[in-house]
C-alpha cells in the first residue's frame, strides 16, 4: 500500500525534532454545492530541526515515532524550496 504524501505549512517548531504542519484541503460540500476549505494539523518528525514557521513542506506517513507523531518530513530539495 503506498504511503500518503501531504503538503502544508509549518505552524509550530517549538518542540525538539518535531514540527506541526497545517494541511488544508478543499472539497465540494455535498448539500450546499460550494467549495469548502478544511484544515487539519499533523505533527511530523524533523530530525535536523531545519524547518521554521511559515515554510512549505511535504510530509509522508511512517511508523509511529511517539504518541502523536506518525509523519516525517520529506528531505528533498523540492520540499525545502
Provide an overview of this structure.
There is one protein chain. The protein is mainly beta and 81 residues long. It has one domain (5-80): Nucleic acid-binding proteins (OB fold (Dihydrolipoamide Acetyltransferase, E2P), Beta Barrel), CATH 2.40.50. Helix content is 5%, strand content 48%. A five-stranded mixed β-barrel has the order 1-2-3-5-4. The radius of gyration is 14 Å and the shape is globular. The chain starts with a strand and ends with a helix. The model has no long low-confidence stretch (mean pLDDT 92). This is Small ribosomal subunit protein uS17. Keywords: Ribonucleoprotein, Ribosomal protein, RNA-binding, rRNA-binding. One of the primary rRNA binding proteins, it binds specifically to the 5'-end of 16S ribosomal RNA. InterPro entries: NA-bd_OB-fold (IPR012340), Ribosomal_uS17 (IPR000266), Ribosomal_uS17_bact/chlr (IPR019984).
List the helices and strands and how they pair.
Blueprint: E1 5-12, E2 18-28, E3 35-45, E4 56-61, E5 71-73, H1 77-80
Parallel strand pairs: 3-5
Antiparallel strand pairs: 1-2, 1-4, 2-3, 4-5
List descriptors.
mainly beta; five-stranded mixed β-barrel; single chain; 81 residues; OB fold (Dihydrolipoamide Acetyltransferase, E2P)
Amino acid at each position: 500500500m503506498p504511503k500518503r504524501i501531504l503538503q502544508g505549512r509549518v505552524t509550530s517548531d517549538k518542540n525538539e525534532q518535531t514540527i506541526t504542519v497545517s494541511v488544508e484541503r478543499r472539497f465540494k460540500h455535498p448539500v450546499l454545492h460550494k467549495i469548502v476549505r478544511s484544515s487539519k494539523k499533523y505533527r511530523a518528525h524533523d530530525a535536523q530541526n531545519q524547518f521554521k514557521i511559515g515554510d512549505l513542506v511535504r510530509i509522508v506517513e511512517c511508523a509511529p515515532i511517539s504518541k502523536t507523531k506518525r509523519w516525517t518530513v520529506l528531505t528533498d530539495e523540492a520540499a525545502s524550496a
